[in-house]
């Protein structure tokens, strides 16, 4: 194989993601999955900052330890967006929902979670 042919065969096309890996993978309910992911990320950050063990987090959240383990491992099945927001408030976090008109520059409206 010539050097040019080898170079061509290893060149991969790179596509910029949308910012939502679930949408990029064309999974159903991509916006909801992304919202859950960001909520669980925020929840895990609070647990980390508080240095709670899974057992201690479970006691505080009113869950069993396997459910906390699922959250820690980003297994989102069985958790609704509403339940995740309630868990955050249980850990003394305010959850704010802001609704506004999308900018004209963006084709579609979106749901986003910003943790501060």
Automatic annotation (TrEMBL):
It comes from the Bacteria. This is XRE family transcriptional regulator. It comes from Rhodopseudomonas palustris. Gene3D superfamilies: lambda repressor-like DNA-binding domains. It holds the Pfam family HTH_37. GO terms for molecular function: DNA binding. Residues 21-100 form the HigA2-like helix-turn-helix domain.
